Amino acid sequence: MAKWHCARRNGFTLVEVLVALAIVSIALLSALRAAGQGTNNADELRSRLLAGWVAENLLAEHRARADWLPLGIQRGTSREGGLDFAWREEIIATPHPAFRRVDVRVFATAEETHSLAHLAGFIVNSPGSGR
């Protein structure tokens, strides 16, 4: 008389292992992508912080020197925190002749495509400055 044995499996099939590896690889790739985006965000925040300092420094220099800037647009570059920034100042007349508005925009590159910081301030033509 013949006996039929049901063979018990002691492990996973190749298909089950491949499916498990696919799931693990997708999870690891998504975690890696999230970490990469976090790093990019930190770099962007650092650049924006430093660009804001560049703009504040420009306005502070004009105020400290009591500059009376001509109307129009001025461009230049500054280095802050080991990074180079391009900046553009637009000097605009105000209704009061003793004040001028200064709009400073700071960019990561000289092409001025992506503004990292924008700061508006005023300079005063004080009567004692002789201008």
**Count of individual domains:** 1
Continuous helix count? 1
| Spatial separation of the terminal alpha carbons | 120 Å
Q: What's the CATH first level?
A: Alpha Beta
Largest sheet, in brief, is: 4 strands, antiparallel
The strand order across the widest sheet is 1-2-3-4
Structural class by helix and strand composition: alpha+beta
CATH topology name: Pantoate--beta-alanine Ligase, Chain: A,domain 2
Radius of gyration: 31 Å
Average of per-residue pLDDT values: 88
CATH architecture: 2-Layer Sandwich
Percent of residues in helical segments? 25-40%
Q: Element order, helices and strands?
A: HEEEE
Low-confidence stretches: none
Shape assignment: rod-shaped
Report the strand count. Answer: 4
Within CATH, the superfamily carries the name: GSPII I/J protein-like
Write up what this structure looks like.
This protein is an alpha+beta fold and 131 residues long. It has a single domain, classed as GSPII I/J protein-like (Pantoate--beta-alanine Ligase, Chain: A,domain 2), CATH 3.30.1300. The protein is 40% helix and 30% strand. It is built from one helix and four strands. It has one helix spanning 14-65, and strands at residues 72-80, 83-93, 99-107, 115-124. A four-stranded antiparallel β-sheet has the order 1-2-3-4, covered by helices on one side. The longest helix is centred in the first third of the chain and has 52 residues, at 14-65. The radius of gyration is 31 Å and the shape is rod-shaped. It starts with 13 loop residues before the first helix and ends in a 7-residue tail after the last strand. The model has no long low-confidence stretch (mean pLDDT 88).
